[in-house]
From TrEMBL, chain B:
Its main location: membrane. Keywords: Amino-acid transport, ATP-binding, Cell membrane, Membrane, Nucleotide-binding, Transport. This is ABC-type polar-amino-acid transporter. The keyword Transcription regulation does not apply. Residues 13-251 form the ABC transporter domain.
Length: 275, 266
C-alpha cells in the first residue's frame, strides 16, 4: 500500500486513481459475469421443484411449527436453563478460596469444552442407560437438556467468571464494609452486576445451543419429539424433496438472526454505557 | 446544609502498635492513635504514607500484621471476632464512592439495612429517605448513580453508611475524586455530621488533603509519613506551626501547589 505512490507513474503511465477505477470496474464485471452465467446455466424449474416446492412446503404446516420449532425451542430453553444454573455454580467454584473446588471447576471446564458435543449426546443416550440400567430422566427433553446443559455450562462458567471478575473490587469492599458477609455481597451486589455484563455473550451462547439442539437427530426419539432438523430430514426423505430442509433452515434463522442482532445491540449499548 | 441525623452516639477508636506489611513492604510501622468518642481526627500526609491502609485496618478491609484495633471497646483484631458484626458498627466512605450502579440512590441506602439489619421494607425506606434528605438529596432518591454528579454520589455513599447507625465513620479521601466545585457540598455534610446543632457529633477518622476542612472541623490532626505518625495535635499547631521538617515540607506543597510543582523532582 505504502509503496503505491512510487509505482504510480510506472506501467502504462496510468495515474493511481485511474488504475483503481479499472480494478473496481474489473471486479464488478466479474461479479456480473458470474451472475449471468449462473442464471443462464441453472435449471430453474428443477431447482424450484426441489428446493422451493410450494405443495411440499404447504404440507409441512402446521406440524413443522407445532412440533419441530416448538421442540427446538423447548430443548434449547431446557438446555440453557440447566447450563446457566450449572455454569453459575462452576464459575463460583472456579473463584472459590477452597482449592479442590477450583480444581474441580477447572477440570470440568477443560473436559466439556474439549469434547465434541455429539460425543456428549451419545454418552447421555447410550452410555448412561448402559451404566445405570435406565436412561437419563425426562425423556428426550431431559436427555437433550442434560447434554446441552453439561456442555453449555462449561462455556457459560467461563463467561460468568469473567463477568464476576469484571465487577470492580470496590463493590465488594463497599458491601463488606456495610456488614454484608462474603456470600451476601456476592449474591446481592456482585452477581447482579456480573449478569448485566454477561447478557450479550450469554445471548450468543443461546444461539449456539439452539443450533446444537439439532444433534437430537442422533437420538432414538419418537415422532412428537422431533425438532426442526430431524423433522426436516425425515420429511425430505419421505417426499423425496429438499424443500423441508430449506423450510427447517428458515425456521432456525427466524430464531437465531433476531437473537444475534439483539446480542449485538446489547453489546453496543454496553460499550456506550461504560462508566 | 441540613443536619445529618445519627442514631447512636460515637464510640472510641483505639489503635495500638499497628503494623501492616504487604509481603516485604511494611506500610504501617507501629501506629498508636486514639480517637475519643465524638472526636474528629484528620489524617494528613503524602501519598504512600499509609493513611488509607491505616483506615482500612480499622474495619479489617486489610488484616493488620500486628497490633490491636479497638472500636467502641471491642477488639476487632481478636481471632474469634464476628467481622460482619464489627463492620456493621463502622461506616466507611471511599474515595471512589463505590455506589452500587445497579441500584437507585434509595436502593443503595436500603439494601444493607434489609439484608444485614433485617429491617422491613417500609422502615428501611423511611430511614433511607431521612438520610438522603439529611445529605440534601431528597429529590434524587429514584436516580441511578450514573445519573448523579460525583458530589451527589459521595453524599449518597455517606447516607448509605449512616443508615446502618454506625458508631464511628471512616472517610478515605472522600473529596479527592471530585471536581473542585463539588467538594464543598460533601465537606458541608461531613461538617454537619461532626458538629450537629444538638448532641454529640459522630466519631470520625478522616483521611484528607483538604487543609481548610481539617483546620476548621478536626479536633486533632495527625501527620503521617513513611508508615509512622510524625506528629499530632490541634490543627492550629500541626497545620500552622508544625514542629517537624517533614510536616513543613508536606504542608508547603499542599497549601501552595505552585511551590509543589517547583519543588517536585520526580
Amino acid at each position: 500500500m505504502t509503496a503505491e505512490p512510487v509505482e504510480a507513474a510506472a506501467p502504462g503511465g496510468l495515474s493511481r486513481r485511474r488504475r483503481r477505477q479499472l480494478s473496481l470496474g474489473g471486479q464488478y464485471g466479474l461479479f456480473l459475469a458470474v451472475v449471468v452465467l449462473v442464471a443462464l446455466l441453472a435449471d430453474w424449474d428443477r431447482l424450484r421443484a426441489n428446493f422451493a416446492n410450494r405443495d411440499v412446503a404447504r404440507d409441512l404446516f402446521p406440524d413443522i411449527i407445532t412440533v419441530g420449532l416448538r421442540n427446538t425451542v423447548v430443548y434449547t430453553a431446557v438446555g440453557f436453563g440447566i447450563g446457566l444454573a450449572l455454569g453459575l455454580v462452576v464459575a463460583l467454584m472456579r473463584l472459590s478460596p477452597v482449592a479442590p473446588y477450583r480444581w474441580f471447576a477447572a477440570v470440568y471446564i477443560e473436559i466439556f469444552r474439549g469434547l465434541p458435543l455429539l460425543l456428549i449426546f451419545i454418552f447421555i443416550t447410550v452410555g448412561v442407560p448402559l451404566a445405570f440400567g435406565s436412561p437419563a430422566p425426562g425423556g428426550a427433553v431431559g436427555q437433550t437438556g442434560l447434554a446441552l446443559g453439561l456442555a453449555g455450562a462449561a462455556y457459560m462458567a467461563e463467561t460468568i467468571r469473567a463477568g464476576i471478575e469484571a465487577v470492580p473490587k470496590g463493590q465488594t469492599e463497599a458491601a463488606r464494609s456495610l456488614g454484608m458477609s462474603a456470600g451476601r455481597a456476592m449474591s446481592s451486589i456482585v452477581i447482579p452486576q456480573a449478569f448485566r455484563i454477561v447478557i450479550p455473550p450469554l445471548t450468543n451462547q443461546l444461539v449456539l445451543l439452539c443450533k446444537d439442539s439439532s444433534l437430537v437427530l442422533f437420538l432414538g426419539i419418537v415422532l412428537e419429539e422431533r425438532e426442526l432438523t430431524k423433522f426436516g430430514r425425515d420429511l425430505a426423505g419421505q417426499v423425496g424433496n429438499t424443500t423441508p430442509i430449506i423450510v427447517a433452515g428458515v425456521c432456525y434463522l427466524i430464531i437465531t438472526i433476531p437473537l444475534s442482532l439483539l446480542a449485538r445491540r446489547l453489546e453496543a449499548r454496553q460499550r456506550r454505557g461504560r462508566r | 446544609m441540613t443536619a445529618v441525623k445519627t442514631e447512636t452516639s460515637g464510640g472510641a477508636i483505639e489503635i495500638g502498635g499497628l503494623r501492616k506489611a504487604f509481603g516485604a513492604n511494611e506500610v504501617l510501622r507501629g501506629i498508636d492513635l486514639r480517637v475519643a468518642s465524638g472526636e474528629v481526627v484528620c489524617v494528613i500526609g503524602p501519598s504512600g504514607s499509609g493513611k488509607s491502609t491505616l483506615l482500612r485496618c480499622v474495619n479489617l478491609l486489610e488484616e493488620p500484621t500486628a497490633g490491636t484495633v479497638r472500636v467502641g471497646g471491642v477488639d476487632v483484631t481478636a481471632p474469634d471476632v464476628d467481622i460482619d458484626a464489627v463492620r456493621r458498627r463502622i461506616g466507611m466512605v471511599f474515595q471512589s464512592f463505590n455506589l452500587f450502579p445497579h441500584l437507585t440512590a434509595l436502593g443503595n441506602v436500603v439494601i444493607a439495612q434489609r439484608k444485614v439489619l433485617r429491617r422491613g421494607r417500609a422502615e428501611a425506606e423511611r430511614i433511607a429517605r431521612e438520610q438522603l434528605e439529611g445529605v440534601g438529596l431528597a429529590d434524587k432518591t429514584g436516580s441511578y448513580p450514573a445519573q448523579l454528579s460525583g458530589g451527589q454520589q459521595q453524599r449518597v455513599a455517606i447516607a448509605r453508611a449512616l443508615a446502618m447507625g454506625p458508631e464511628v465513620m471512616l472517610f478515605d479521601e472522600p473529596t479527592s475524586a471530585l471536581d473542585p466545585e463539588l467538594v464543598g457540598d460533601v465537606l458541608g455534610v461531613m461538617r454537619g455530621l461532626a458538629r450537629p446543632g444538638e448532641g454529640r457529633g459522630m466519631t470520625m477518622l478522616v483521611v484528607t488533603h483538604e487543609m481548610g476542612f481539617a483546620r476548621e472541623v478536626a479536633d486533632r490532626v495527625v501527620f503521617m509519613d513513611g508508615g509512622v505518625v510524625v506528629e499530632e495535635g490541634p490543627p492550629a499547631r500541626v497545620i500552622d506551626d508544625p514542629a517537624h521538617e517533614r510536616t513543613r515540607t508536606f504542608l508547603s506543597r499542599v497549601l501552595d501547589p505552585a511551590a509543589a510543582r517547583v519543588g517536585e523532582t520526580d
